[in-house]
Amino acid sequence: MFEAIAFYLFAFLTIAMFYITVTTSQALYALTALAAGMIFISAFFFILGADFLGAVQIVVYSGAVMALYAFGMMFFDTTREVQEKKGNQYLVVGLATISAVLAVLIFSAPIISDNITALYPVGTHGNTQEVGMVLFTKYLVPFEVAAVMLLVAMIAGIVLAGKKMDESLTLMTEEEIKDMRAEKMRPKDLK
Amino acid sequence: METAYLIETIIKIVVILLVFSALAGLGTYFERKILAFMQRRLGPMYVGPFGLLQVAADGVKLFTKEDIIPTNVVGRIFKLAPVITAATAFMASAAIPFLPSFELFGYKVNPIVSDINIGILYILGVMGVGLYGPLLGGMASANKFSLISAARGAAVFISYEVVTGLSILAPIMMVGSLSLIDFNNYQAENGWIIWSQPVAFILFWIAAFAETGRTPFHLIANDHEIIDGFGTEYSGMRWGLFFIGEYANMFFISFVIPLIFLGGFGDGSVMGALALLGKMAFFFFFFLWTRAAWPDVRPDQLMWLCWKVLMPIAVINIVITGLVMM
User: Fold this and answer.
1) Which of A181, B66, B67, B249 has the greatest CB tally within 10 Å of its CB?
2) B181 to chain A, minimum CA–CA distance in Å?
3) A16 in the Ramachandran plot: left (φ > 0), alpha (ψ -120 to 50) or beta?
């Protein structure tokens, strides 16, 4: 019984949060609702007994949404409402059609659900060990590919951002900063 | 059985909430007295014996102060932020075993709300979510200083979570479990982890100061600007909730450090339980000691320390631990 109560409570909360994320015009509401929705999703992992994935969901997504907040901080005055441009009117029609088809698919899925069985990769050792076993045996190649992609992203980030990494504005004197600015402006003036 | 379990859990939750809310208040008293002692002052001394009732006076002041919501703030987020800080601090405590299990009127009590087998990961994750309190408070405040301090706080937390996670990975590899009770049992058999992982211990301890936002890394509230950072616009009990969250976090981290590195409650005897409380008290005292003895570091120094010193050391520590274990 408690499982059912918890499931419906968190299902309602998750959907309500993501609804707010999509509909509100206030950047802070949207970001906060997004973070809350991500954290409420972890409840489903806990209900299903996948403790490790639940905790990882909290750790990873709370950090990821934090980065979004940083962007929000840089791009908007987050205490004002954002004026959105109303785009193509036909977009609404298209999106409504897609969501209608999706709704039909979701509700008709139980009809064929007898043919759907869950594939459990390994036996029960406790969550963390299980995830580790699967990650380093069956899914080793996707895991390594993901690692390589992250490495590429990291190197790209360092190359893009690291041009002046050996200079620190806080350690320079006023004159040095002025000289540096002047140096930077000169080629522009010549053009 | 299920009803008994439910009642037991609710009682545990209420006890933890009451005890640590009260301790947060008493913590401020200890902080003032210890800081005063180290700075050759007297500290609170007029209200009650040794100024002990100062805590009650402060409580009355916080509860009865007018709850001001300034104009131009994002109202709902502004009201929500302190609740997040306090709530996540107490949620993190769900996986901490505060004492060894004991018999009460013939009924076996485990003083842990839920012994999930990913205890440490859960505690660190929920403490990380606690950052949303200062961040949202600062961003919703419509105050530039609050916003800057929130940004600084976010940078510090995100950076030092890396150090916390990496430093704790080596002990986890040795124990082979993420549950704090397993950590305790491992150390009861094989000796304290600090002797085999001194580097991880130091790193985790340093990162704990950043996680709780205490003085050498106290960047979320700018003392040198004579304002309270993200809490500048808050008053009354909303500010009090931030406060309770910060102090509850300090107490919980002071429990977690001995449980992971210093043997926890040992074999579970009464002496072991008292020893755990003693270790907790030392780490809490150390937080206050540092505040009296150390100046704040600059944000760029903090980032330099995190990414160029602590993180490489943590990674090397993991590699060496792995090689030794192989």
Assistant:
1) B249
2) 15
3) alpha
Nearest residue of A to residue B300 by CA position?
A170
Instruction: List, as own/partner pairs, every contact residues B317-324 make where C-beta atoms lie below 8 angstroms and the sequence separation is at least 24, other chains included.
Output: B317/B166, B317/B167, B317/B170, B317/B197, B317/B199, B317/B200, B317/B203, B318/B166, B318/B169, B318/B170, B318/B173, B321/B170, B321/B173, B321/B174, B321/B197, B322/B173
Per residue in B23-82, pLDDT tens?
Answer: 888 888 999 999 999 999 988 888 888 888 988 898 899 889 988 888 888 888 999 999
Provide, as residue numbers in chain B, all residues whose Cβ is less than 8 Å from the Cβ of A70.
Answer: 151, 154
Report if residue A166 sits inside a domain: yes
Kindly report, residue by residue over B143-196, the tens digit of the pLDDT.
888 888 888 888 888 888 889 999 999 999 999 888 888 898 899 888 899 999
Tokens linked to B169: 């990975």
Q: Is residue A130 part of a domain?
A: no
Q: What residue of B is the nearest CA neighbor of A30?
A: B77
Q: Across the interface, do B158 and A66 touch by the CB < 8 Å criterion?
A: yes
B216: which 2 tokens?
Answer: 């050498």
Rounded CA-CA distance A174/A170 in Å is 10
- CA distances (Å), origin B9, targets A91, B16, B114: 51, 11, 8
pLDDT(A130) > 90 = no
Chain A residue numbers with beta carbons less than 8 Å from the beta carbon of B127 are: none
Whether A35 sits inside 8 A of B72 (CB atoms) is no
User: Which CATH number belongs to the domain containing residue A45 in this structure?
Assistant: 1.20.120.1200
pTM (two decimals): 0.86
Contacts of B129 in chain A (CB under 8 A): 39, 58, 62
ipTM: 0.84
**A164 occurs within a structural domain:** yes
Grouping H, G, I as helix, E, B as strand and the rest as coil, residue B237 is helix
A98 with A108, same domain? yes
pLDDT tens digit string along B205-262?
A: 999 998 888 888 887 776 777 788 888 889 888 998 988 888 999 999 999 999 999 9
Q: Which residues of A touch B3 (CB under 8 A)?
A: none
Q: Is the pLDDT of residue A189 over 70?
A: no
The pLDDT value recorded for residue B168 is 92
- In a shared domain, residues A152 and A76: no
Query: How many CB atoms sit inside 10 A of residue A191's CB?
Result: 4
Question: Domain range spanning residue A58?
Answer: 1-84
- Tokens at B102, concatenated: 């004991």
Split into its structural domains, chain A has a count of 3
